[in-house]
Amino acid sequence: xxxxxxxxxxxxxxxxxxxxxxxxxxxxxxxxxxxxxxxxxxxxxxxxxxxxxxxxxxxxxxxxxxxxxxxxxxxxxxxxxxxxxxxxxxxxxxxxxxxxxxxxxxxxxxxxxxxxxxxxxxxxxxxxxxxxxxxxxxxxxxxxxxxxxxxxxxxxxxxxxxxxxxxxxxxxxxxxxxxxxxxxxxxxxxxxxxxxxxxxxxxxxxxxxxxxxxxxxxxxxxxxxxxxxxxxxxxxxxxx
Length: 240
Hints:
By secondary structure, this protein is an all-alpha fold.
Protein backbone atom coordinates (compact mmCIF):
# COMPACT_ATOMS: atom_id res chain seq x y z
CA UNK A 1 0.00 0.00 0.00
CA UNK A 2 2.89 2.37 0.74
CA UNK A 3 4.33 1.77 -2.72
CA UNK A 4 0.95 2.50 -4.29
CA UNK A 5 0.64 5.74 -2.33
CA UNK A 6 4.14 6.76 -3.45
CA UNK A 7 3.18 5.96 -7.04
CA UNK A 8 0.07 8.14 -6.80
CA UNK A 9 1.95 11.00 -5.14
CA UNK A 10 4.79 10.83 -7.65
CA UNK A 11 2.42 10.73 -10.60
CA UNK A 12 0.15 13.58 -9.50
CA UNK A 13 2.59 16.00 -7.87
CA UNK A 14 6.10 17.39 -8.14
CA UNK A 15 7.16 15.08 -5.31
CA UNK A 16 8.68 12.44 -7.57
CA UNK A 17 9.45 9.00 -6.22
CA UNK A 18 12.48 6.83 -6.95
CA UNK A 19 10.72 3.52 -6.77
CA UNK A 20 12.29 0.40 -8.22
CA UNK A 21 11.13 -1.07 -10.44
CA UNK A 22 9.74 2.05 -12.10
CA UNK A 23 5.94 1.72 -12.26
CA UNK A 24 4.22 1.58 -15.63
CA UNK A 25 0.86 3.16 -16.33
CA UNK A 26 -1.02 -0.06 -15.65
CA UNK A 27 0.44 -0.08 -12.13
CA UNK A 28 -0.49 3.59 -11.78
CA UNK A 29 -4.06 2.56 -12.57
CA UNK A 30 -3.97 -0.11 -9.88
CA UNK A 31 -2.62 2.52 -7.47
CA UNK A 32 -5.37 4.99 -8.31
CA UNK A 33 -7.20 4.23 -5.05
CA UNK A 34 -4.56 6.48 -3.46
CA UNK A 35 -5.22 9.45 -5.77
CA UNK A 36 -7.44 11.16 -3.16
CA UNK A 37 -4.65 10.73 -0.59
CA UNK A 38 -2.27 12.53 -2.93
CA UNK A 39 -4.98 15.18 -3.27
CA UNK A 40 -5.07 15.40 0.51
CA UNK A 41 -1.35 16.23 0.56
CA UNK A 42 -1.97 19.01 -1.96
CA UNK A 43 -5.00 20.27 -0.03
CA UNK A 44 -3.15 20.32 3.28
CA UNK A 45 -0.28 22.31 1.80
CA UNK A 46 -2.74 24.78 0.24
CA UNK A 47 -4.50 25.33 3.58
CA UNK A 48 -1.19 25.87 5.39
CA UNK A 49 -0.02 28.29 2.70
CA UNK A 50 -3.30 30.19 2.83
CA UNK A 51 -3.11 30.56 6.61
CA UNK A 52 0.42 31.94 6.36
CA UNK A 53 0.08 34.14 3.27
CA UNK A 54 -3.33 35.65 4.12
CA UNK A 55 -1.84 37.31 7.20
CA UNK A 56 0.71 39.25 5.15
CA UNK A 57 -0.93 40.15 1.83
CA UNK A 58 -4.24 41.57 0.57
CA UNK A 59 -6.89 38.97 -0.28
CA UNK A 60 -6.48 39.02 -4.06
CA UNK A 61 -2.68 38.77 -3.96
CA UNK A 62 -2.91 36.01 -1.36
CA UNK A 63 -5.37 34.11 -3.55
CA UNK A 64 -3.12 34.42 -6.61
CA UNK A 65 -0.17 33.09 -4.63
CA UNK A 66 -2.18 30.15 -3.27
CA UNK A 67 -3.54 29.23 -6.70
CA UNK A 68 -0.03 29.66 -8.10
CA UNK A 69 1.24 27.20 -5.48
CA UNK A 70 -1.57 24.85 -6.51
CA UNK A 71 -0.25 24.90 -10.07
CA UNK A 72 3.34 24.38 -8.94
CA UNK A 73 2.49 21.44 -6.67
CA UNK A 74 0.83 19.61 -9.56
CA UNK A 75 3.38 20.65 -12.16
CA UNK A 76 0.52 22.06 -14.22
CA UNK A 77 -0.24 18.46 -15.19
CA UNK A 78 -4.01 18.75 -15.50
CA UNK A 79 -4.08 22.36 -16.66
CA UNK A 80 -2.24 21.26 -19.79
CA UNK A 81 -4.93 18.68 -20.45
CA UNK A 82 -7.67 21.25 -19.76
CA UNK A 83 -6.32 23.68 -22.37
CA UNK A 84 -5.70 20.93 -24.94
CA UNK A 85 -9.26 19.66 -24.55
CA UNK A 86 -10.83 23.07 -25.07
CA UNK A 87 -8.67 23.68 -28.13
CA UNK A 88 -9.78 20.37 -29.64
CA UNK A 89 -13.32 19.63 -28.53
CA UNK A 90 -15.13 22.74 -29.88
CA UNK A 91 -13.45 22.42 -33.29
CA UNK A 92 -15.82 21.59 -36.15
CA UNK A 93 -13.56 18.92 -37.61
CA UNK A 94 -13.53 15.09 -37.74
CA UNK A 95 -12.57 13.25 -34.55
CA UNK A 96 -9.17 12.25 -35.96
CA UNK A 97 -8.33 15.90 -36.50
CA UNK A 98 -9.38 16.65 -32.93
CA UNK A 99 -6.87 14.08 -31.72
CA UNK A 100 -4.19 15.85 -33.73
CA UNK A 101 -5.11 19.14 -32.06
CA UNK A 102 -4.92 17.44 -28.64
CA UNK A 103 -1.34 16.41 -29.37
CA UNK A 104 -0.38 19.89 -30.58
CA UNK A 105 1.66 21.64 -27.89
CA UNK A 106 0.67 25.10 -29.11
CA UNK A 107 -1.99 26.98 -27.13
CA UNK A 108 -5.02 28.05 -29.15
CA UNK A 109 -7.63 30.72 -28.50
CA UNK A 110 -10.24 28.39 -26.95
CA UNK A 111 -7.65 26.77 -24.71
CA UNK A 112 -6.32 30.13 -23.57
CA UNK A 113 -9.81 31.40 -22.74
CA UNK A 114 -10.63 28.20 -20.85
CA UNK A 115 -7.40 28.48 -18.85
CA UNK A 116 -7.99 32.15 -18.00
CA UNK A 117 -11.58 31.47 -16.91
CA UNK A 118 -10.60 28.48 -14.78
CA UNK A 119 -7.76 30.27 -12.96
CA UNK A 120 -9.77 33.47 -12.57
CA UNK A 121 -12.64 31.60 -10.90
CA UNK A 122 -10.25 29.74 -8.60
CA UNK A 123 -8.57 32.99 -7.57
CA UNK A 124 -11.94 34.69 -7.04
CA UNK A 125 -13.12 31.91 -4.73
CA UNK A 126 -9.88 31.68 -2.74
CA UNK A 127 -9.96 35.47 -2.29
CA UNK A 128 -13.30 35.31 -0.44
CA UNK A 129 -13.04 36.58 3.13
CA UNK A 130 -15.25 33.75 4.41
CA UNK A 131 -13.52 31.00 2.44
CA UNK A 132 -14.00 27.58 4.01
CA UNK A 133 -10.56 26.08 4.50
CA UNK A 134 -12.20 22.67 4.64
CA UNK A 135 -13.59 23.15 1.12
CA UNK A 136 -10.19 24.34 -0.07
CA UNK A 137 -8.71 21.13 1.32
CA UNK A 138 -11.48 19.02 -0.23
CA UNK A 139 -11.16 20.42 -3.76
CA UNK A 140 -7.99 18.49 -4.75
CA UNK A 141 -9.18 15.43 -2.84
CA UNK A 142 -12.52 15.23 -4.64
CA UNK A 143 -10.97 16.21 -7.96
CA UNK A 144 -8.54 13.30 -7.91
CA UNK A 145 -11.15 10.88 -6.71
CA UNK A 146 -13.38 11.97 -9.58
CA UNK A 147 -10.65 11.18 -12.12
CA UNK A 148 -10.83 7.55 -11.04
CA UNK A 149 -14.57 7.17 -10.53
CA UNK A 150 -15.69 8.92 -13.73
CA UNK A 151 -12.78 7.59 -15.77
CA UNK A 152 -13.55 3.97 -14.89
CA UNK A 153 -15.00 2.13 -17.87
CA UNK A 154 -14.43 5.00 -20.29
CA UNK A 155 -13.75 4.17 -23.89
CA UNK A 156 -10.10 4.43 -24.93
CA UNK A 157 -8.02 3.67 -27.97
CA UNK A 158 -4.60 2.25 -28.74
CA UNK A 159 -1.92 1.48 -26.17
CA UNK A 160 -1.15 5.00 -24.97
CA UNK A 161 -0.62 6.10 -21.37
CA UNK A 162 -4.32 6.75 -20.73
CA UNK A 163 -5.34 3.41 -22.23
CA UNK A 164 -2.88 1.53 -20.01
CA UNK A 165 -4.01 3.54 -16.98
CA UNK A 166 -7.69 2.82 -17.63
CA UNK A 167 -6.91 -0.85 -18.25
CA UNK A 168 -5.16 -0.98 -14.86
CA UNK A 169 -8.17 0.40 -13.01
CA UNK A 170 -10.08 -2.27 -11.13
CA UNK A 171 -13.06 -2.40 -8.78
CA UNK A 172 -10.81 -2.12 -5.72
CA UNK A 173 -9.18 1.09 -6.95
CA UNK A 174 -12.50 2.67 -7.84
CA UNK A 175 -14.20 1.63 -4.60
CA UNK A 176 -11.46 3.04 -2.37
CA UNK A 177 -11.05 6.17 -4.50
CA UNK A 178 -14.76 6.77 -4.02
CA UNK A 179 -14.58 6.27 -0.25
CA UNK A 180 -11.39 8.26 0.30
CA UNK A 181 -12.32 10.93 -2.21
CA UNK A 182 -15.92 11.61 -1.30
CA UNK A 183 -16.53 10.53 2.31
CA UNK A 184 -14.50 13.45 3.78
CA UNK A 185 -16.95 15.84 2.10
CA UNK A 186 -19.52 14.84 4.73
CA UNK A 187 -17.53 16.96 7.18
CA UNK A 188 -18.62 20.02 5.18
CA UNK A 189 -22.33 19.29 5.60
CA UNK A 190 -24.75 20.15 2.80
CA UNK A 191 -22.12 22.09 0.89
CA UNK A 192 -19.89 19.05 0.85
CA UNK A 193 -22.74 16.88 -0.42
CA UNK A 194 -23.56 19.37 -3.17
CA UNK A 195 -19.87 19.69 -4.03
CA UNK A 196 -19.53 15.94 -4.63
CA UNK A 197 -22.84 15.68 -6.50
CA UNK A 198 -22.11 18.72 -8.65
CA UNK A 199 -18.54 17.62 -9.39
CA UNK A 200 -19.74 14.14 -10.37
CA UNK A 201 -22.43 15.45 -12.71
CA UNK A 202 -20.03 17.96 -14.28
CA UNK A 203 -17.30 15.37 -14.82
CA UNK A 204 -19.79 12.81 -16.15
CA UNK A 205 -21.18 15.39 -18.58
CA UNK A 206 -17.65 16.16 -19.74
CA UNK A 207 -16.96 12.47 -20.28
CA UNK A 208 -20.11 12.02 -22.35
CA UNK A 209 -19.33 15.18 -24.33
CA UNK A 210 -15.79 13.97 -24.98
CA UNK A 211 -16.87 10.49 -26.02
CA UNK A 212 -19.23 12.04 -28.55
CA UNK A 213 -16.58 14.37 -29.95
CA UNK A 214 -13.54 12.08 -29.76
CA UNK A 215 -15.18 8.65 -29.45
CA UNK A 216 -12.76 7.89 -26.59
CA UNK A 217 -11.02 9.31 -23.52
CA UNK A 218 -7.32 10.13 -23.22
CA UNK A 219 -5.02 11.56 -20.55
CA UNK A 220 -5.96 15.15 -21.30
CA UNK A 221 -9.61 14.34 -20.71
CA UNK A 222 -8.87 12.57 -17.41
CA UNK A 223 -6.94 15.64 -16.26
CA UNK A 224 -9.87 17.82 -17.23
CA UNK A 225 -12.15 15.74 -15.00
CA UNK A 226 -9.93 16.78 -12.11
CA UNK A 227 -9.79 20.48 -12.99
CA UNK A 228 -13.52 20.74 -13.60
CA UNK A 229 -14.34 18.89 -10.37
CA UNK A 230 -12.02 21.12 -8.33
CA UNK A 231 -13.72 24.19 -9.76
CA UNK A 232 -17.20 22.89 -8.93
CA UNK A 233 -16.13 22.17 -5.34
CA UNK A 234 -14.78 25.70 -4.96
CA UNK A 235 -17.95 27.18 -6.42
CA UNK A 236 -20.01 25.10 -4.00
CA UNK A 237 -18.01 26.70 -1.19
CA UNK A 238 -19.42 30.10 -2.25
CA UNK A 239 -23.05 29.06 -2.01
CA UNK A 240 -25.10 31.14 0.41
